[in-house]
Amino acid sequence: MPVAVSPLAPTAKLSALGFALLPQLYTAAEVAALLRCIEAAPAAGPNFRRSQDVFAIRNLLGEVPALWPLLATPTLRGLLGELFPAGCHLTKAIYFDKPAGSNWLVAWHQDLMINVDRRAADLPGFGPWTAKAGWVAVQPPAAVLENIVTVRLHLDDCDATNGALKVVPGSHLGGMVPPETIAARTTTATVCAVPAGGAMLMKPLLLHASNRSTSDRPRRVIHLEFSDAELPEGLAWREKREM
Description:
This protein is an alpha+beta fold. The chain has a single domain, classed as Jelly Rolls. The protein contains six helices and 15 strands. It has helices at about 10-15, 30-40, 60-65, 65-70, 75-85, 140-145; strands spanning about 20, 50, 55-60, 90-100, 105-110, 115, 130, 135-140, 150-155, 165, 190, 200, 210, 220-225, 240. Strand 2 (about 50) and strand 3 (about 55-60) form a beta hairpin. It is globular. It starts with 9 loop residues before the first helix and ends with a strand.
């Protein structure tokens, strides 16, 4: 079932529900420029993943720096000013392309890990740690995750047929959910359809998932994470970019 439109403002929706839908954050011309920039990038290196079912670029702005001037529009900056009145920084940027007919699905989960510059010992509340392909990630305390806002910019019309996210409204308020209890919490799930140029705002602790694509339409998304939190001394956000 598509998500119902709420009369709450986006910031209020985000606080109460854990997500908010913005029908237009970028114009059609701005979306076209973003796609041209991504398509012109050399798709090679350890931060690029390409298969039949997915094309992804992590450390997106490091790999495609020309994207940032196209992304940092006055509209985006205005939105971030509402979300973080005292200012914020970007902490992660990823590009996802779910091609037409992709059989890639994402099971129900919360986004619990952040990318950092190193592994730091003896930080209370931080862990477990992972390291892969030169990248270090860690699960931080819940207070850090609660401070993050994800902006998912949709470059294509997205609905249930091409992998729109399913979410459980309000599930971010329950903190970190034990994996074995997640299935029982998804009975109130709803699908978040977003038009091209629109965005979905969400909190990392919101339970979310996506189905396999059943249409011939792609689902290309730029995933941006923002925070105003500073990490403990000796640890830094891997992709930090001041706003």
